[in-house]
Amino acid sequence: MQVDYRPVANIKAIKPNKKGDKDIESAIKETSKYSVKSSDFLTDDDEKNQEIVSDLEKGLYRKRMLSYGGLLKQKHKILNLDDAEDGNLINTSDEDKTT
Residues 6 or more apart from 14 whose CB is under 8 A from it? Predict the structure, then answer.
């Protein structure tokens, strides 16, 4: 790979979470929460980086950030899943719905 940075990857086995979600559901929920790459905002200046991260921390406090890309974005659209901001956060599965 010919890039000007050292790529970092966190690779783990897919397993059910403590809430009992299925393996793939758990993996999708986990990976979809990373919507910002540090390479988009970090510089070579440590002092400036601390200021930027502090601003981000304050600005994003108690905010929900979701971003889907590539295959996850396609599957999200195909499955017609609820939007994270406007979706139904009470009934999260078919089992919870009453008719």
Answer: 23, 24, 26, 27
CB-based contacts of 4, cutoff 8 Å, min separation 6: none
- Name the residue with tokens 């956060």: 89
Nearest to 85 by CA among 60, 59, 67: 67
Q: What is the domain partition of the chain in residue ranges?
A: 23-79
CB 49 within 8 A of CB 42: yes
Report the greatest alpha carbon distance in the chain: 58
For 33-53, what is the mean pLDDT?
Answer: 81
Average pLDDT over residues 16-35: 65
Structure tokens at 34: 């990373």
